[in-house]
Amino acid sequence: MNAPQPHPAPLPLFQPRRAAFWLFLLLVVAGLSTVGQTLLSGLRVMPVSALAGAAAWALYTLPLLWIFRRLGVFRGQTAAPFVLAFAWGGLGAVFLALPANQAMFGILSKLVSPEFCHTWGPAIAGPTDEEPLKLIGVILLLLIAPGRFRTISSVMALGFVVGLGFQVVEDYFYTVSTALNHPNAHQLEPVVQILVLRGGFCGPWSHAAYTAIASFGVGYFVARRDLPTGRRLGVAALALLTAWALHGFWNSPALGSLMEGLTILLYFPLKGLPVLLAALLLWRVARHEKTAV
């Protein structure tokens, strides 16, 4: 019996001959400009909130990455692709999602009504725009360096970091926006408020989980080349649809009656646990998947 052939060394991430590399770089740089403008506007009006918010969300992110590294989520990979994944989520995807969401809200207001858009707009526009845009970053990184991510679990890890980047930058935008519109002069109060609400109550079942779920399908498509293309495409589409549905359910007014009194403590777990359970289930399936690219 012939010995199995070793996989070729993965390509470096600097690939100036690949169109995917330049598209990725262009959109990340454009996103950096957008995020920079938000930071500067916050510094001009609410400097303490802007700086404290940036520090708070950085401190929120780093322990999460350390924990997942200790759990072996990033096993066998260097830090570089995950830095790029975070950059896509926090810069490239955010840059594309801002105008896309505005356009979707405008369409819903005109086609249905402003009232419908106010109530259901986040549940429709958010997942419809944001889930594919985040997943584009995962696909671009796979195109830039084919073979670097050989398993479904490694692609899911990439998606997790893309989603985390989007989540953290989006939460920072909310922090600055809340500070600019806060009725009190205390600049640290809105930072703590958004950190507890969006980081604590919403964080475990937010964009990192959505994009990890959607990335399961991409990983399945590239890793299971022994299966028919139609089946692989079907799994990829189903994974994206699952992330879209869970994101839409979270953004929807469903279970809104629990947003009063002590029942608010039930609201977040009831809406978020399906997201977390789906991500953990797919992660378990991916870790038992032996087929590599």
UniProtKB/TrEMBL annotation:
InterPro entries: PrsW (IPR026898). It comes from the Bacteria. The keyword Ribonucleoprotein does not apply. It holds the Pfam family PrsW-protease. Keywords: Membrane, Transmembrane, Transmembrane helix. Signal peptide: none annotated. The chain crosses the membrane at residues 20-40, 46-68, 80-100, 156-174, 205-223, 235-252, 264-283. One of its GO terms (molecular function) is peptidase activity. This is Protease PrsW.
